[in-house]
């Protein structure tokens, strides 16, 4: 195993341990929790605060008793901000290598964009709510010992797990991930391989791929 990949796995494991000790101070928003058995819980959902959390808190009303649902029993979580913006989270097993199918358990990932063929997910540090009731991500790091990371994943309709498309500072870069997973769009791949589109253009890259695969 390459050293950089090993360091990446160790950093993920360390991050999970730190996040598991993190106390969720996010507010409750209107929303719903869909359980794997088909049950739909509608009411007030505490906005998730990190990908590694094991439970999501729910209240039927403001004065109701809090109930926590285990991540392993959850299919999806949806919360709606006071301004009406919808955020969706899903517990997803993630494969960080292009080859193989090994994963480190499920992470509660933010749905970034999707169509009927593919979903893109995003994570970075912890999820926070600002004073304007907008969701943002926060990554705390120690300069010289750690580095802030942005992680993008995709899960096609026939995938049983999400795959890591790109992570900032990951050795294999965007090109390798794109060539592994964007074969349905040769024109997009050519632009990425020719460096016409780079990571800074990730929104355009994802939007283009979603448009190409929208009828698949």
UniProtKB/TrEMBL annotation:
UniProt KW keywords: Signal
Q: Which source organism?
A: Mesonia algae
- Span of the secretion signal? 1-20
Under which name does UniProt file this protein? Answer: DUF4369 domain-containing protein
| Entry annotated with the keyword Signal | yes
